[in-house]
Amino acid sequence: MILGNIVGKTTTLDFKFLIKDTAKKFQYVQALHKEGYYILAQILEIEKDIEKSIAICSIIGYNNGTLKKLTMPLDPGSEVLDASEDFIRATLSLNESGALIGKLNGKENVNVNLDLNKLLTKHLVVLAKTGSGKSYATAVLIEELLEKKVPVLIIDPHNEYNTLKYENQDEKERLFQYGLNPKKYILLEYAINIDENRDARKLKLNINNITASELIHLLPAKLSNIQMGLLYSALKNINKIDFDELIMNLEVEDNSTKFILINIIDHIKRLEIFSSSPTNLKELIQPGKATTINLQGIPDEIKEIVVYKLAKDLFEERKKNSIAPFFFVVEEAQNFVPERNFKETKCSSILRQIVAEGRKFGISVATISQRPSRIDKNIIANASTQIILKVTNPNDIRAIVNSIENITLETEKEIVNMPIGTAMITGIADIPLFVDIRPRKSMHGGKTILLFNEKAALESEGDLLLIVKPTYSAKDMSLIKGQEIKTTMVPCLFLECIQNNNGFNLLINLNSNEFVLDIDNYKSSLINMSEIKLSTNQQKLFDLALNLSEFKASDLFAKSGLMFSEVHDGINSLTNKGIFMKLGEKYKLNEKFSFFTNLINYATYSRPDYEKINPDAKLDILYPKEKIIDYLKKFIEINDCKECFLVKYQ
Q1: Which of these CATH numbers, 2.60.120, 3.40.1130, 2.40.10, 2.60.40, describes 2-92?
Q2: Is 308 within 8 Å of 347 (Cβ atoms)?
Q3: What is the per-residue pLDDT for 447?
Q4: What's the pLDDT score for residue 460?
Q5: Taking Cα atoms as reference points, which of 225, 221, 203, 216 lies closest to residue 246?
Q6: Which residues, in sequence order, are CB contacts of 569 under 8 Å at separation 6+?
Q7: Calpha distance 638→641 (Å, rounded)
Q8: How many of the other CB atoms lie within 10 Å of CB of 43?
Q9: What sign for the dihedral angle of Cα 462, 464, 470, 472?
């Protein structure tokens, strides 16, 4: 389609044309050069007065095997056409394979793929203001890497990426437009504080390879020269760091400043960050799996310690080729590797080193930040690919422009005005490309929390309830079953528990007294609550028996702190009540109670959330929660409980 003709002065870099048809800002156009080839250009601005509209275009170049710049300008009067999709692909050398990040803005049939070889041998940054979609765009990229079986490790300060393990059922129609389907990925979640992060495994950092100078560097306090001298003195006869031994050595020092040091060391010890039996790094780096290091709920100085030690150990293992090459995502990077004149963190130096040297050893780094002006400028400059979403802070925009090549004044202005979901990506072609980010296949978890979902509040009726819902919606189930689906609200109790040092969650149906095991297919297990009335001594013996498959009276005597006669009488009473079973000289817990010794087998991996819903039916509570909680407390530690509803389709 002819858009107009070139007017006025032309150069090898730009031209103007008189618009005869419709044209839009950032539209791609093509024009025939007198040497016989078409050039690709982009409309950067449109000027309009009463008589005419003029489009101002920047020339991208022409493709003669590679993208080349003009050496001679276009002729005035030349026709300007809307660039065809095939011509755009050919000129920009857009790969048909790679990591599908989205579609070229304004060209819904032109896919934009990131070069995986470049991604995995160089580095990437994602920059945007809060709420502009940086975590969403990063998760899209992570999905593409996982599809190619690339291991991904994510430093996740706010637990935004744990939803990779759930399908995105909310954007199915948009996914179909890309030829994609909702999908969940294998996610391994580790955390320091598993009391607040129930779905996570305990992350234990290696204390065996820490040196004295490294320990001093990691302490969450600045030490005076006297304190450092005391600490070195206490460490000199310790071959391997042991906090208990270190505290004992400090206690014999004849200096009052030792008490501050002892408190600091004891604080680190009680956090249980370090262990002589650390998490195996090969567990963290597994092909086709994403691992998140969930730092939610811990102080900033402890986050820095975790990132430093983990990054350093992973870097050393990659140098020895002991773990697979991997993609390393650092969220909120301004807090871990800030601009040098702003502050220095405990992990700044190791992250700078990995960015500078990591690609030689198979570590590709993605740094994600909402404050580009606060992040080390070398981090941005060393990235071969930059994904920039909406940014409005003048200092942040200046930092981006100063660190990235080929950004024009018009492009700089557009960064401020970009809609949510559109990104400017550099490193794909010689010019920045505006790309509409594709929908995620997995559920998005990085949303800003609102009191109400505005759209839901306007469009739906019903009560705002705490609910646990299946993967598929009622509409989806109706299409699958080919019949109308009724929604029933089942009253439930959601418990956060600990048993045998394992944290997990339980979902209990208060209408039928069952553990809910599978929400989508509604599979459950009946809770057989046999009446137990025990004395204090009997309760002690019962608690000990929960962790023993078989035992003798002498076993309970050694662990209970009771007199042997009390143990003997207690065992006889528990046997008479049918709680213990006698097996010759040994005893065991009755099987109806051993059911409760491994309740992690009945754990749920779904969590309740508030949503407005208008069900067809609501079941009554037939089993009081107080009775269930009192009974389960005999077997597990309950940290939190919530009444909620399970959405069940019928």
Answers
A1: 2.40.10
A2: yes
A3: 53
A4: 43
A5: 216
A6: 537
A7: 7
A8: 22
A9: positive
Q: How confident is the model at residue 590 (pLDDT cuts 50, 70, 90)?
A: confident
**Residues near 398 by Cβ (< 8 Å), separated by ≥ 6?**
373
State which H helix or E strand residue 100 sits in.
strand 99-104
Residue 206's φ and ψ, nearest 5 degrees, are: -75, 115
- CA pair distance 499, 546, nearest whole angstrom: 11
* DSSP SS3 for 377: helix
| pLDDT surpasses 80 at 592 | no
The secondary structure of 60-88 as a DSSP string is: EEEESSSEE--SSPPPTT-EEEEPPHHHH
Element (H, E) at 566: helix 564-576
Confidence of residue 530 (pLDDT cuts 50, 70, 90): low
pLDDT for 188-225, tens place per residue? 999 988 877 777 899 999 999 998 888 888 887 778 88
Cα 151 to chain centroid distance, Å, stands at 14
User: How high is the mean pLDDT of the chain?
Assistant: 87
Fold of 111-203+281-437: Rossmann fold (3.40.50)
Distances (CA, A) of 65 to 73, 97, 403: 20, 18, 29
**Domain-by-domain residue ranges, the chain?**
2-92, 111-203+281-437, 212-275, 454-530+598-649, 536-578
What's the one-letter identity of residue 313? D
Assess contact for 292 and 160: CB atoms under 8 A. no
Catalogue the E-assigned strands of 485-606: 487-499, 502-509, 514-518, 523-526, 580-583, 586-589
Is the confidence at residue 457, as pLDDT, over 50?
no
For residue 512, pLDDT over 60 is answered with: yes
Length of the chain, please?
650
